Amino acid sequence: MTPESKPLLTLDGVCVAYRHQEVVHDVSLDVAAGEVVALIGPSGAGKSSLLRAINFLEPPSKGRILLEGVEVGGSRRTLDALRRDVGMVFQSFNLFPHLTALQNVMLAPEHTLGLPREQARERAMRQLTHVGLAERADAKPGKCSGGQQQRIAIARALAMEPKVMLFDEPTSALDPELGAEVLATMRTLAGEGMTMVVVTHEMHFAEDVADRVVFMADGHVVEENSAGKLMRDPQHPRTQRFLNAVRGR
Amino acid sequence: MGTILSTLADGVAQTIGITLAAFAVAAVLGLPLAVLRRSGHWLVRLPAVVVVEVLRAVPPIVWLFLIYFSLGSTDNLQLTTFQAAVIGLGLIYAAHLSEAYRAGLDAVPAGQWEATRALALPRTQAYVRVILPQALIVVIPPMATFAIALLKDSAIASVIGATDITFQAVQLTQQDLNGLGNFTVAGLLYIALGIPFAVVARGADRVLSRRLVGA
Amino acid sequence: MSTLNEWQDYLPDYLDGLKVTLRLTGVSLAGGLPLGLLLALAMTARRRTVRWPAILLVEIGRGAPALVVLYFVYYGLPQLDLTWSSFVCAAIALGFTTAAYTADIFRAGINSIPVGHREACQALGLSHGQELRLVVLPQAIRVVIPPLIGFCILLYQGTSLAFAVSVPELLSRAYSQASITYQFTSTLVLAGLVYAAISLSAVALMRARWPGRTASVTDVEPPGEGLARTTEVTHAP
C-alpha cells in the first residue's frame, strides 16, 4: 500500500467484549482496495470476533471502524451503508432453507437494495453463474452439497456488489475435498481484485492467495506482514510456534 | 381482597386434594399403560392404545359428567363429587402421563436394553433396576407440567359441584356480584398454587441439561 | 337397540349443538391466533417495555384455568359495562386462552430459527421487519403447524366449558336432553362419541400428514427451559 492511497477499510483501536469480558484488544488495521488479508491464529484468538465486529454483528466495545474514511456505527444510515458494502460469508453457511438457491441470492438485492424483481433475479443468476452453480438455481440448499452451499452463500454476498468481502472460516465445516472447491472460488474472486478479509485455518490459502497475513493470539495482533514473509520467516516466537504446530513439524 | 381471599381459601383444600389424588391415580395407572404400549405384540399394544386415545379424545368435563351422573348415581354406587372428579381426572391424566413415561423410556439408549439382555436379566429386573431409574429424571419435567395442567383442569370439578376454589368464587359472586374481583383472585390463586410444580420442573431440567452437557 | 333409537331422536339437536361448538372453535381461533402471533413477536422483542407486558399476559392466560377466565369475562366484565351474550363471552375467553397458548407455540417456532440466519439477514442489510417477514416467519410456520393443529383439537374439546355459561353447544344439548329424559348414560355417551369422532379423525389426519412428528393429540415435547417455558402439553382449559 502506497502512503497516498486511502485505505478502503480501517480498524482503529478496535476492542470487542462479550459479557464484560474483552476478547479482542485494541486492534488497528488498514485494508487497501483489492487487498486480500488473511487472519490466522489459534482458536480463541479473537479472529472471528474481530471479523464480526467489522460489520457490527457484534458492535465493537471500543474503537472505530471506517469504510472509505467514513466512520460507521454513529447512525442507522452509516450502518445500513456498511452492511450494503460489506459482504459476509459464515462458517455454517446460514443459507435460508425455505428458499431456493436463486431466491437466497436475490433476497437482499430485491429487499435491501429495492431492485425490481426481474433485475434482482438477473443479478442473482449472474452471481450463481460466477460461482459455477447456475444449474443449481432452483435447488433448495438442503439438496446441495456443503461445498455448493457455501458457494451459494458466496454468491448471495456478492449479489450486493460489496466493496469488501468478509469470510469467517468458510471451509472449516467442510470435508477437505469440498473445501477445495470453495477455496477455488475464493481464489478466483481474489484474482478479480475483490477486497477480502479471511479468517482461515488453511495455511496454503493464506500463503498463496493473501497479500498480507495477520497473526492473532489471545485477542492481540501478534505479528503482521506480507504473506510471503510472515509464513516463511515469522519473527515472533508465538507465531513460529503456531506455524510449526499447524504444519505438523 | 381480604374477604375474597378468606372465602376462596375454603376451596383451596378441595382443589389441592383433587389435584394430588388425581395425580396419584394417574401416576400409578400411567405406568402399566406405557409399558403395554411398548410391547412387541400388537394384541397387547392395541387395548392400551385404544384406552389412551379414547380418554384423550373426549373433553374432561364430559368424562366427569359420565362418571358422576351416569356411573356414580346408581343404586349400587354413589360417588361424591370429589370421588368422581378424582376418578375422571385421574384416568384422563393416566393417559397423558403414559405418553410422558413412554417418551422417558424411549429416551433410554437401546444399548442399555441390549446390555440387560446380554446379562440375561429378567424383563422386570431390567425395568426396575436399569431402565426406570434412567427414565425417571427425563420424565420429571413433563410430569410437573402435567401436574400444573391437572391443577387447572381441576376447576372443571366445580361444574359437578365439587366445592373447590372456582366453586367458591361462583357462589361468592352470586352473593356480592363482584365477579371482577372474585375471579381475579381465583385466577391468581391457581397461578400461585402451580409455582411449586414449576420449580420442580425447572430443577429437573437443570439437572438434565447438566447431564446432557456432561455426556 | 333402544339406545340406538334414542340416539336417533337426539341426533338432530346434537348436530345443531355441534354447529355452535364448531363456530365457537372457529371464532376463538380467528381472534386468538393473530393475537397469539403478536404476543409471540412482542415476547421476542429486544425492548423490555414491549417484552414484559406480553410475557405477563401469556403467563396469566396459561396459568389461570380457562373456566376461571370464562367466568371472569361472563360475571366480571359486566361490572365495567361490558355486557355480551354468553356466546361472545365464551369466544372472548377462549380466544384469550388461545392467544396465550399459541403465543408460546409461535415463540418456540421463532426461537427455533438458528441465530446464524438472523445474522445473515443483518449482514445482508435486511431490516428487522424484512427479516421477520422473509426469513423467520416462513421457516417458523413449518415448525408450528403440527403443535397448532394439536392445540386446535384441544380447543375444540375446550369449547365444552361454555356449557358453564349456558352456550347451547354440544354438551349443553346433551345435558338438557338428559334432564328431560333422565337417560344420563345414553345422552352423555353420544356426546362423548361426537367429540371423540372429530378429535380422533383430526389426530389421524395430522399423523398421516406429519408422521413421527406428533405422538398424539398432546405432543410430549422434550424438557423445556423451566418455569414459564416448560412446554405446556395438556388440555388448554
UniProtKB/TrEMBL annotation, chain A:
SUPFAM superfamilies: P-loop containing nucleoside triphosphate hydrolases. One of its GO terms (molecular function) is ATP binding. Gene3D superfamilies: P-loop containing nucleotide triphosphate hydrolases (3.40.50.300). One of its GO terms (cellular component) is plasma membrane. InterPro entries: AAA+_ATPase (IPR003593), ABC_ATPase_HisP-typ (IPR030679), ABC_transporter-like_ATP-bd (IPR003439), ABC_transporter-like_CS (IPR017871), MetN_ABC_transporter-like (IPR050086), P-loop_NTPase (IPR027417). It is a peripheral membrane protein. Transmembrane segments: none annotated. The keyword rRNA-binding does not apply. Keywords: Amino-acid transport, ATP-binding, Cell membrane, Membrane, Nucleotide-binding, Transport. It catalyses: a polar amino acid(out) + ATP + H2O = a polar amino acid(in) + ADP + phosphate + H(+). Residues 9-243 form the ABC transporter domain. PROSITE patterns: ABC_TRANSPORTER_1 (PS00211), ABC_TRANSPORTER_2 (PS50893). Its EC number is 7.4.2.1. It is found in: Cell membrane. CDD domains: ABC_HisP_GlnQ (cd03262). PANTHER family: AMINO ACID IMPORT ATP-BINDING PROTEIN, GLUTAMATE_ASPARTATE IMPORT ATP-BINDING PROTEIN GLTL. Belongs to the ABC transporter superfamily. This is ABC-type polar-amino-acid transporter. It comes from Nocardioides marmoriginsengisoli.
Automatic annotation (TrEMBL), chain B:
Its main location: membrane. Coiled coil: none annotated. Residues 12-201 form the ABC transmembrane type-1 domain. Belongs to the binding-protein-dependent transport system permease family. The keyword NADP does not apply. The keyword Transmembrane helix applies. Keywords: Amino-acid transport, Cell membrane, Membrane, Transmembrane, Transmembrane helix, Transport. PROSITE patterns: ABC_TM1. GO terms for molecular function: transmembrane transporter activity. NCBIfam families: HEQRo_perm_3TM. This is Amino acid ABC transporter permease. InterPro entries: AA_ABC_transptr_permease_3TM (IPR010065), ArtM/GltK/GlnP/TcyL/YhdX-like (IPR043429), MetI-like (IPR000515), MetI-like_sf (IPR035906). It is a multi-pass membrane protein. It comes from Nocardioides marmoriginsengisoli. The chain crosses the membrane at residues 12-36, 48-71, 77-95, 126-151, 180-201. Pfam families: BPD_transp_1 (PF00528). It is found in: Cell membrane. GO terms for cellular component: ATP-binding cassette (ABC) transporter complex. One of its GO terms (biological process) is amino acid transport.
TrEMBL record, chain C:
Its main location: membrane. Keywords: Amino-acid transport, Cell membrane, Membrane, Transmembrane, Transmembrane helix, Transport. GO terms for molecular function: transmembrane transporter activity. The chain crosses the membrane at residues 20-42, 54-77, 83-103, 143-164, 184-206. PROSITE patterns: ABC_TM1. InterPro entries: AA_ABC_transptr_permease_3TM, ArtM/GltK/GlnP/TcyL/YhdX-like, MetI-like, MetI-like_sf. Pfam families: BPD_transp_1. It is a multi-pass membrane protein. It is found in: Cell membrane. Residues 216-237 are annotated as: Disordered. GO terms for biological process: amino acid transport. Residues 18-206 form the ABC transmembrane type-1 domain. Belongs to the binding-protein-dependent transport system permease family. This is Amino acid ABC transporter permease.
